[in-house]
Hints:
The chain is of the alpha+beta class.
Amino acid sequence: MTIPTKxxxxxxxxxxxxxxxAEAQESLNTLNQSMSxxxxxxxxxxxxxxxxxxxxxxxxxxxxxxxxxSNLTTFKHLIYSAENSTDSPKCTxxxxxxLHFQNQPxxxxxxxxxxxxxxxxxxxxxxGTDSPLGQILMNQCKGDQITFNQKSISILDCF
Length: 159
């Protein structure tokens, strides 16, 4: 696996997170349009039920958008903090980790659990510090061997 540069990784993750925010906004716009298009029918209870369902979806979409904005902001903050801290070989939030897990290379952004991002060139997993794997990885160093769910993981690089 050819590891992309840190700049390429950051650019692709930001692009992915910004796209997620845009998708959440589009969903919100669609639901708002549906809410404004909803006209009262002769069946009053049916109208009220439909409005309540749309409002619940609207609330959920708004929460999703806020979560995605928070993820983007947190990612940028973690990158900034990692770039402006003293260089340490330890796995700390804001760093990228190159791991060897079950005979497969694994690229991880440590500090924010955003799931998997797949691009043409690579796949990266976001691992939060509060996750079980994140707690084990915290403060480990390049070259360390850890065990997670009875499986061995080698830390090949931390950058």
